[in-house]
Design a protein that fits this description.
The protein is mainly beta. Helices cover about 10% and strands about 30% of the residues. A hairpin with a 7-residue loop joins strand 10 and strand 11.
Length: about 220
């Protein structure tokens, strides 16, 4: 019987490594599958996860894992994406490229995986409370694109993620799609409150392009 390793002094929970994902049109951002943790969606370079809704955020800069990261969802919309933003539960993860890619099936950039989604359960976001770039240097992620949902969509996202989190893999993944383009498909660990989405792993120019596409 092997000895039990001593407990770690590091209070920060580990994040599972991501898998392959899609990157926004015309952009070199490397995004992939990962884990949704608590508050908002966080796309990393070959890793996706949620911006933590912890109590560490002290500088209010919109970066880091604290609850100061980003605006809260507000009742009225402020900007309109060039195409609807869709949050869609994943149904299957299949090897190889999709035979018939489109609204309900997406091939990852490496061409090795096909994701099929349940469009009848999707949340379609047509208006946003806001979108902006913020400094994520304290997390070592550079420029972050921060998206804030309107209040009604934030509540709907909380309900959707709560349902998705209760499912077994791969049904506990949520595809985030802009128009017909897959941006990410992270695993949902629990119900997500707050309505703030974050995109990292992009250059300054790529971030500005994504902000423009989202109506910022």
């Amino acid at each position: 019987m092997q000895p039990t390793p001593p407990p770690s002094d590091d209070p920060t929970p580990g994040r599972p490594p991501g898998e392959g994902g899609e990157k926004p049109r015309g952009m070199g951002a490397a995004v992939a599958l990962g884990v949704l943790v608590v508050l908002g969606l966080l796309l990393g370079v070959f890793a996706l996860g949620l911006a933590d809704n912890g109590e560490d955020g002290e500088d209010g800069s919109g970066s880091g894992n604290g609850d100061t990261a980003g605006e809260q969802a507000v009742p009225g919309g402020g900007v309109t994406p060039e195409e609807p933003l869709r949050l869609v539960p994943v149904e299957e993860v299949l090897p190889g490229a999709c035979e018939d890619p489109g609204r309900d099936a997406f091939t990852t950039p490496d061409g090795n995986t096909c994701l099929t989604v349940a469009s009848d359960e999707e949340l379609v976001v047509e208006e946003l409370a806001g979108v902006e770039t913020v400094d994520g240097s304290q997390q070592g992620v550079g420029t972050v694109v921060q998206v804030t949902l309107v209040e009604s969509d934030a509540g709907a996202m909380a309900d959707l993620t709560g349902e998705v989190a209760s499912r077994s893999d791969p049904g506990n993944r949520l595809a985030v799609v802009l128009g017909e383009e897959l941006l990410m498909a992270p695993t949902v660990a629990e119900r997500l409150e707050g309505g703030t989405l974050q995109v990292v792993g992009v250059s300054d120019e790529e971030a500005e392009e994504l902000v423009d596409r989202l109506g910022g």
